[in-house]
Amino acid sequence: MQDVVEKVYEQVVARNRGEAEFHQAVREVLESLDPVIAKHPHYADNALLERIVEPERQIMFRVPWVDDAGQVHVNRGFRVEFNSALGPYKGGLRFHPSVNVGIIKFLGFEQIFKNALTNQAIGGGKGGSDFDPHGKSDAEVMRFCQSFMTELSRHIGPNTDVPAGDIGVGGREIGYLFGQYKRLRNSYDAGVLTGKGLAWGGSLARTEATGYGTVLFAQSMLATKGETLEGKKIAVSGAGNVAIYAIEKAQQLGAKPITFSDSSGYVVDEAGVDLDLLKQVKEVERGRVADYVSRRPGARLVTEGRPWDVPVDVALPCATQNELDADSAATLLRNGCAVVAEGANMPCTPEAIAAFQAAGILYAPGKASNAGGVATSALEMEQNAGRTRWDFATAEAKLAGIMVDIHDSCVEAAETYGRPGDYVLGANAAGFTRVADVMIAHGIV
Ligand code: NDP
After folding, report:
1. Measured from the CB, is residue 373 less than 6 Å from ligand 1?
2. In what order do the strands lie in the sheet with 161-164?
3. CATH code for the part of the protein at 209-369
4. Is 0.90 topped by the overall pTM?
5. 141, 201, 354, 403: least surrounded by Cβ within 10 Å?
6. pLDDT over 70 for what percent of the chain?
7. Active-site annotation holds for 105
8. Residue 168 CA to ligand 1 centre (angstroms)
9. Distances (CA, A) of 242 to 42, 45, 255, 371, 397
10. Residue 343 in contact with ligand 1 by CB distance below 6 A
C-alpha cells in the first residue's frame, strides 16, 4: 500500500484494538484503493479515508430477557451506523454467539460499499447481538427481540436507519422486532425494517434475493468467458437463507449443487440437492443437516473438513466469515474449480483470495455478489413508501437488472484502474468513488 493509505490502516488497527475482522475488511478495501488514490489524489484530501473508516455512530446496549424457566439473561446489543452519505443507514441484524463489536464493524464497513454498488439511496450500517436463537422457544426469541427493540427503536426510523435480517435473524425475528417497534412508536412505519412478511409490508423476492443474486452474479462472470452455469457442479456452504436460495437459482439455471452445511458438518448429495427436503428440514422444522441425510438415500454427512474438499466447478460460500482458507482454496483449484462467488460476507480469507487471483479464476467478493439482498430490501422500502406491492416477476426482474449493473460496474472499474477481471478492485473502486464523491459534496461532516 502507498504511504498515505498504509498510515490510515495503521491508525485503524491502533484505534480499534482486537477487532481482527474489522481490520481485515478495512485492509482489503484500502489495498484496492491504491490505484484509485494514485489516479485521483483529491480522495486522500480532507481526511476522506480517515473519515470513511470511522463509523458515524456506534451504539452498544444491554439486552436483558427472561427464559421460559424464569431465569434472567443478559446479552449485548449493537448497532453501528457507519455511513449515511448515500441515504439512511441500511444493513442487517445478526444474532449469533460470536457477535462482537469488531464483527459488526466489519459488516457495517462492507455494507457501505455494497450499498453504493446497488446504486440505490442507502447508507451503510449493521447491528446484532451475541444472543443465540438456536434451541430457544418462540416465546424466548420473542422476549429477546422485544427487549432488543426497546433500545434499538430510539435509534432507527424509515429515514434514519433501516435494519433487516442476517445470520440468526429471519422472518420470525423481523416480525417480533417490528411488532415491538410499532407498539413503542404507536406508528405503522412499515419502512423501518425490511425482510417483513408479505401480509405486512414485505416484498416478494426478498427472501430469495441474496441467494438468487449471488448465482446471477456468477452467471454474469461466466458470460464474460462465453460460458453458462448449465451442467456445472456446485459446492454451497451454509443451509440458511442465502444457501437455500442460491441452490434454488442454480438449479433453475441448469447447474447441480451437491453440497450444503451447517455448524455440525456438511452434506454431499451427488445426485443433486433435494431442495424441497432441505427447505422442509431447515425452514419448516428448524432442524440440522443430519435430518436431511437420514431421509435422503445416497446423501452423506461429513463432520470433518469443509464442502470445499468436494470436486466442483463452482464454489458458493454462503455461511459465514473466513470459512474458506488457503488450504481450501488450494483444494478447490487442484480440483478444477473455476468460479467462486461469495454469498456470505467475507467468507474467503485474504490468502484464499490471493490464491484465486493468482490462478486467474473468476472470483467475486461478497460486497458485489451478495448485494442482491440489500438491493431488494431497498425495493421493499420503495414499495412501502409508495404503499404498493409488485408481483414476484417484477421484483425479480428488478433484482436481475441490478445484479447485471453491479457486475458491469465492477468490470468497468477494474478496467479503468488497469486490472481487468479483478472484481475485488472493481467492487471496491466503484463503491468507494460513489460514496466518496458524495462525502466531498456534503463537506466536512
Ligand atoms: P442464516 O442464519 O439463515 O444461515 C446461516 C447458515 O450458516 C446456517 O446454516 C449456519 O449454521 C451457518 N453458519 C453460521 N455461522 C457459522 C459458523 N460460525 N460455522 C459454521 N456454519 C455457520 O444466515 P444467512 O443465510 O442470512 O446468512 C449467511 C451469510 O450471508 C452471512 O455471512 C450473512 O452476513 C450473509 N448475507 C446475508 C444476507 C441476507 O439477506 N440474509 C445478505 C447478504 C449477506 P448453524 O445453524 O449451524 O449455525
Report:
1. yes
2. 57-66, 72-83, 123-129, 89-95, 161-164
3. 3.40.50.720
4. yes
5. 354
6. 100
7. no
8. 7
9. 38, 39, 17, 11, 19
10. yes
Residue 291 is placed in which grid cell?
Answer: 435430518
Asked if residue 1 has pLDDT above 90, the reply is no
Residue 2 predicted with pLDDT over 90: no
Instruction: Report the CATH architecture of 56-187.
Output: 3-Layer(aba) Sandwich (3.40)
- The residue behind cell 452519505 is 85
From 437, 414, 435, 409, select the one nearest 424 (Cα to Cα): 414
pLDDT of residue 142: 98
Above 90 in pLDDT, residue 3?
Answer: no
Beta bridge partners of 77: 61, 129
Nearest CA to ligand 1 atom 44: 344
Handedness of CA 60, 65, 67, 72 (dihedral sign): positive
Ligand 1: atom nearest CA of 134 is 46
- CATH 3.40.50.720 positions along the chain are 209-369
pLDDT in tens, 120-162: 999 999 999 999 999 999 999 999 999 999 999 999 999 999 9
Decide: 33 and 428 in contact? Cβ < 8 Å. yes
